[in-house]
Amino acid sequence: MAEWLVEHGIGETRALLVENGEVLAAKLHWPGELVAGLEHPAKLVSKTSGSRRGVAAIESGTEVLIDHLPSELTEGSAFTLRISRAPIAERGRFKRAQGRFVPENEASTSLGDTPFTTDKVVRQFPAGLWEDVWSAASSGSLDFPGGEILCSVTPAMTLIDIDGDAPPRELALNSVPVIAQALSTFNLGGSIGIDFPTLPSKADRRAVDEALAGALDEWPHERTAMNGFGFVQLVARLEGPSLLHRFATSRVGMCARAALRIAERAEGAGAILLLTVHPALKAKLKTEWLEELAQRTGKQVRIETNPGLALEAPHAQIASN
Prior knowledge:
- This protein is α+β, with helices and mostly antiparallel strands.
- 26% of the residues lie in helices and 35% in strands.
- It has helices spanning 115-118, 129-139, 168-185, 202-215, 243-264, 279-282, 287-297, and strands spanning 3-8, 13-19, 22-29, 39-47, 54-58, 63-67, 78-85, 88-90, 93-95, 97-102, 120-122, 141-144, 147-153, 158-164, 190-195, 222-223, 231-236, 272-277, 300-305, 315-319.
């Protein structure tokens, strides 16, 4: 039976939905981020005239775009809101969080139904599971028989391209299961465009549409039929930044946290934990993170830099001096 496993890392919390040793879905949370589904006390900062929309500030001072406001609520009023979408950074802009007004009789004191607050916490995931997810999200690609899908983030939508040497109909059909996997593994939402190979035959397009419908049967979404150019658009609930969004806008931050995870798992005898990283990563390693790394490992932490290392390829070892 599938269950969410939660791993509290340094600088981030990771969650994997696992069944029979396979990852079905993944989520990632960084400290201080808002989480969709959680409720916060807030004050109304401004309200758009003639509408039920406005801007509210929660206890941390973060502003949230709010809707479903009652007409009698005035600026400065206190109320409860529920986060519907966490803030999302994009190239050249920042999308503020979105939330909804919660009537007083419906407000909850619970932490909400999220993997980060309700499920099984483990010291570390089974070997290789998070590494595979992280590597796939970093490259934005997943292989399948005869080809691969390539994922990229744009301000308008996430795009999925299919590439390979197989005949177009076979290539398109073979890609469907891995597309379905990517949607959950990368925690995708919002507007998603899939660029299948062009299929002139209506029967072939219908076959791909039916295969996609079956693969996404349990994934809540709306979908267009494939057009004559092989394009399909999906629209799903967007709760926050996907793993692809994080790599697109915070690659150094993602790699810095991954370096700490690798360092925490280093084995060997000695009192020194030596972590060698690309120079860009060293600037991202916060003092409190390194202090926590030392506390978790019981070793003195030493950071060295090597410009020849890729951001994604830090090296950790235990040394005696």
